[in-house]
Design brief:
about 190 residues, 7 strands
């Protein structure tokens, strides 16, 4: 293993680029000199890849229900392939975001989505014969949102920005998605 080190000079921002991470895309608003421009990156391929592999694994689990060894071996290979495809897409998007910010002298602003999974998986008190709690969201929605790679994308953006000397700022995500940044509609 080879470790690289680089001392990057942090530049003073001449503008700002704010990104809203959604399930199937990441939208950016760039503000420089009082003028705003918008850019969007399509992440729907990641959703398709994850869903495709989920369905494939489900079939293998049913087919090899009695032979756990074979099932695990196939699943490991598929999860590796899935992660490679997802990471490839995320690396391309994060590289483009940081490259654009560096070229234009932007500071990158991202939502702080630390507690998103916690709120997705939260349960409410109810009459449940097992533990007295029920989930607030459906199993399908929780599976979909828990496989969402928002934190991985943010970490890719963060380390690439540090490498290039671009500052990344996190803002509280509460009430930031009430109004569309592009059209202004709630």
């Amino acid at each position: 293993m080879v470790v690289f080190s680089k001392t990057a000079r942090v530049m003073e921002p001449r503008g700002y680029a704010a990104y809203d991470t959604n399930e199937k895309n990441i939208d950016g608003a760039h503000i420089k000199g009082g003028e705003a421009t918008f850019k969007s990156y399509d992440l729907s391929r990641i959703c398709k890849v994850r869903h495709c592999y989920f369905e494939r694994v489900r079939k293998i689990q049913a087919k090899y229900a009695n032979d756990n060894r074979v099932s695990k071996k196939i699943q490991q290979k598929w999860f590796r392939n899935q992660n490679n495809k997802v990471n490839s897409t995320l690396h391309k998007v994060s590289l483009d975001i940081v490259k654009h910010a560096k070229e234009n002298g932007y500071r990158i602003i991202l939502k702080d989505l630390k507690h998103t999974c916690k709120s997705i998986n939260s349960k409410v008190l109810s009459i449940n014969k097992f533990d007295g709690k029920l989930s607030k969201h459906s199993k399908k929605l929780k599976r979909r949102l828990n496989s969402w790679s928002f934190r991985k994308l943010q970490s890719f953006i963060e380390y690439k920005a540090k490498w290039e000397g671009v500052k990344v700022v996190y803002v509280d995500a509460r009430n930031t998605s009430n109004v569309c940044a592009i059209c202004g509609i709630e």
